[in-house]
Design goal:
Elements (H helix, E strand, L loop, with lengths): L2 E4 L1 H7 L2 H16 L3 E2 L4 E5 L2 E10 L6 E9 L11 E8 L6 E6 L1 H19 L6 E5 L3 H10 L7 E5 L5 H15 L2 E5 L2 H5 L4 E4 L16 E4 L12 H6 L1 E4 L2 H7 L3 H5 L8 E4 H5 L13 E4 L4 H15 L6 E3 L3
Helix pairs in contact: 2-3, 2-11, 3-4, 3-11
Length: about 325
């Protein structure tokens, strides 16, 4: 048997925002229904970043695949002309353990993270949401918007002017206008971005709260906090909101709630539900127009393995796909 070698270009051919949304939603449902095994991600810490190992096995909702993603987070990589996040995914046959594919996981990670935010918005944001506020303007902001537009009819975005990084903001604004024709405005005042926005999306590596005010009825996708010590949202908002997490173990360790939990400002009782439980119908999502909802996304291996599986199945019989014999 041979192992497929799948590049970013191969993954991009298959994994669109629509397919990523559908796949991630099924993966969360499978996890809630007990069809997945997923140990918490493990970390290696370096002076300027970290390396994470993320294994999972899914055997329901149309999946039968195992695998592991190895992914780094180095926020200062832009200065070296490298992505801040780079990933490699290995897919394994659950029956034999054979490595079916080794694939680029960098683009896949960005898109599956965008899909998780979109699916959270599907169940937690108001259906008439039209304005989105962005705190963070890098590549993850792009995939958050691309996937969200498959769920909600967003017609205007507000972008926070990141201090000392005007180019990133202007690039995101131009990309949004060119790609989707959406009105985009930039403000250096955080409250102007987050107030009167139907959906607020945060994608920064901040270690101090950035968002201090939101309007009633707002849904927040808190994406950036993915390691201990990171936070983007004022804990006062967390206490007011209906908080939904992707996974309790990961969120309490390294998600948006990690600092409030460690400081005993919140407990597990303050967490309303897992996103998978809402998707599976075990808990309700949004129940009123005025409630504030928040999704704490740490990023789960089931998202990576499920999306990787879809790509593998679509490409495994293509004659133009590279493969190698490892054993």
């Amino acid at each position: 048997m041979k192992t497929l070698i799948l590049t970013k270009q191969d993954v991009e051919r298959i994994l669109t925002p629509v397919i990523a949304n559908e796949t991630v939603e099924k993966a969360f449902r499978a996890y809630s229904l007990g069809y997945a095994s997923m140990p918490a991600k493990s970390y290696l810490y370096f002076p300027k970043g970290d390396l994470r190992s993320m294994p999972a096995y899914i055997c329901g909702e149309g999946f039968d695949i195992a695998g592991v993603k190895c992914v780094n987070v180095h926020p200062q990589n832009a200065g070296r002309r490298l992505p801040a996040v780079m990933a490699v995914i290995i897919l394994n046959d659950p029956q034999t353990g054979f490595p079916l594919a080794v694939m680029d996981g960098t683009y896949l990670t960005r898109l599956r993270t965008g899909a998780a935010g979109a699916i959270a918005a599907k169940y937690l944001s108001r259906e008439d949401s039209k304005i989105a506020g962005f705190v963070g303007c890098g590549s993850q902001a792009q995939t958050q918007l691309s996937c969200l537009l498959e769920i909600r009819n967003i017609r205007k975005i507000k972008i926070w002017q990141v201090p000392k990084d005007k180019k990133c903001v202007q690039d995101f604004k131009k990309w949004t206008q060119t790609t989707y024709g959406i009105e985009a405005i930039v403000s250096s005042c955080m409250d102007d971005v987050t107030m009167n926005s139907d959906i607020v999306i945060t994608t920064t590596p901040s270690r101090v709260p950035l968002v201090n005010c939101v309007s009633p009825g707002t849904h927040i996708n808190a994406i950036g906090a993915d390691a201990p010590g990171k936070q983007e949202i004022n804990p006062k908002i967390l206490k007011q909101a209906k908080v939904v997490v992707d996974d309790w173990t990961q969120a309490s360790h390294s998600g948006e709630i990690n600092i409030p939990i460690s400081r005993r400002q919140m407990t597990k009782r303050n967490i309303y539900a897992l996103l998978g439980d809402i998707i599976a119908g075990k808990k309700q999502g949004r129940i009123s127009a005025g409630e504030i909802t928040l999704f704490d996304a740490t990023g789960l291996a089931i998202q990576d393995v499920s999306c990787g599986y879809i790509v593998y199945k679509a490409l495994k019989n293509r004659p133009d796909i590279k493969n190698i014999k490892l054993f």
